[in-house]
Specification:
Helices cover 74% and strands 0% of the residues. It is mainly alpha-helical and 194 residues long. It has a domain of 134 residues: Tetracycline Repressor, domain 2, CATH 1.10.357. Helix 4 runs parallel beside helix 7.
């Protein structure tokens, strides 16, 4: 029974995430959340507490899913160049999925009204920094395996890759042509040796 409730809560949080992703934190009302999550007022407060707690859970769930995907990608035997290019390809191709909101949930949050909340800002910042740290570790490993030049500044390269990827997600909100995103990303990755 507990496992089923946990699954139901995860599904409800996923539905809330898609609502927040489309409408933003501030523009998602309690009525919107209840409808999206398909739960009643009492169940909402008993299970989740309030809108902010649900939002924090959506951030956590989103990041956990993306971190798992990244760890699987970077644990593969492929070259670092193929791993990084696959990461960018996934980001670009995801923008073509009509069931998936545009951009990156974390990045969209950064520019939303929610950023005024210090707890939300701190959490988003933690996830973005952790992503960059994981990327840096993959680059360090690539240097150790002689896939990248030993003089590679892995910290700055990870920061630049993260910055470019977040910018790419922002551009997708503007319905920037996918062909241009692919072409410019290829140029960028080639320029940084990936």
């Amino acid at each position: 029974m507990g496992r089923n409730l946990e699954f139901e809560n995860k599904v409800a949080v996923d539905k809330a995430m898609h609502l927040f992703w489309r409408k933003g934190y501030e523009h998602s009302s309690l009525a919107d959340l209840l409808a999206a999550m398909e739960i009643g007022n009492g169940s909402f407060y008993n299970t989740f507490g309030n809108k902010k707690k649900v939002f924090m859970l959506t951030l956590e769930q989103y990041y956990a899913a993306n971190t798992e995907r990244m760890h699987k990608l970077f644990a593969s035997d492929r070259s670092i160049q193929k791993k990084v290019r696959s990461m960018f390809k996934y980001g670009i191709e995801r923008q073509l999925d009509p069931d998936c909101p545009k951009g990156c949930f974390l990045v969209n949050t950064v520019s939303a009204d929610a950023i005024e909340d210090r707890d939300i800002l701190r959490q988003v910042r933690f996830y973005l920094d952790d992503f960059e740290h994981n990327l840096e570790q993959a680059l360090v490993h690539a240097v150790q395996c002689h896939q990248l030049d030993p003089s590679t500044d892995t910290r700055n390269l990870a920061a630049v890759l993260n910055f470019y990827l977040q910018g790419l997600m922002k551009l997708s909100l503007l319905e920037y042509p996918i062909a241009k995103l692919r072409q410019q990303t290829d140029y960028f990755l080639t320029a940084v040796g990936l």
